[in-house]
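Friendly challenge for the regulars: who can give me the structure tokens for this chain first? No prize, just bragging rights.
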Amino acid sequence: MGTEVEIPKQHRACVYDEPGKVSTKVETIDTPEPGPGEVLVNLTHSGVCHSDLGVMTNGWPMLPYPTSPGQVGGHEGVGKVVKLGPGAEKSTIKIGDRVGIKWVSRICGSCAACLESADGICFNQSISGYYTPGTFQQYAIGPADYVTPIPDNLSSADAAPMLCAGVTTYAALRRSGAKSGQWVVICGAGGGLGHIAVQLSSRGMAHRVIGIDAGSKEKVILDSGAEHFIDVTKHDDASIAKAVKDLTGGLGASAIVVCTASNKAYAQAMGYLRFGGTLVCVGMPEGTPVTMGNVFPSSMVQHQHSITAVAVGNRKDAIEVLDFAARGIVKTHYRLEKMEKLTEVSSDLFLLSGEWSSGGGGSA
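First reply, four minutes later:
Bragging rights claimed.
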């Protein structure tokens, strides 16, 4: 697989032509040359994530800068390596290898966060699709030591969503500290992250899972391995807490992973967390930041509650979660569309996120 591949001087890419709006445009751009230690990847698939929507629409005020017109988005890309930059031949990656490019596309490897394998908060990281050309294009650059190898028996379409939704929820479940046989609640369990989290939790980690989402997501959640489903639209804060406690012997869940970008879901979650339990923040609500509701130091002390968060996983998490997918333990629900349909797909995601997030524990 070391044969040189013919590489075009230009290629097609989807750019955010009007940041602040749900709008993309297919343009022809120059194909980049890999620099020292880099590889050029001919991408064939890229997942579309809620984070892409946040970057496209400038919906996340916590980002340091607004998105620039012409930004190539995307961060769940899979393709084959077609060229090695100087020095990249010393890596384990070879021409013809299938690899993935993740949300954090590059880390420095030497800051305090990197030294503790906290890739997601590297102080000098590059974000694919945000001030770094992303994966909504035919060719992209990645560091030879940070692109993720794709298992041979896993299709590129199945692999792409695992590079963000998969690795993030896997890292969140590990961070929760939940043990096999314990109850885990997934908020937004029918969404892109949520249905993967349910499968990993129930089938990969032997947790007992309760999925919370809007009624239309019941089948996908139960099919993903949840023991119980709760329709968030039929409950208020008090009744949803009671529903979870009724299913868990009156104690609540040992771990709660909030995958939905809903402030209300976070506020509700503390009401059904078991003593000694952990709430893991994953979904990031858009718009003006709101303090998490119903978090009282006295109650946390009384019940020994913990709150933690996960941005994304690290390199090891990515390799491990792709192995789960390759072994058939987790399977992503997706639809395949051409590059030209990105605006339409993003609009669908925007409408779903607006509808469900207002319900409290819903998802896109």
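Residues 342-357 form the longest helix (16 residues). The mean pLDDT is 94. Your move, everyone else.
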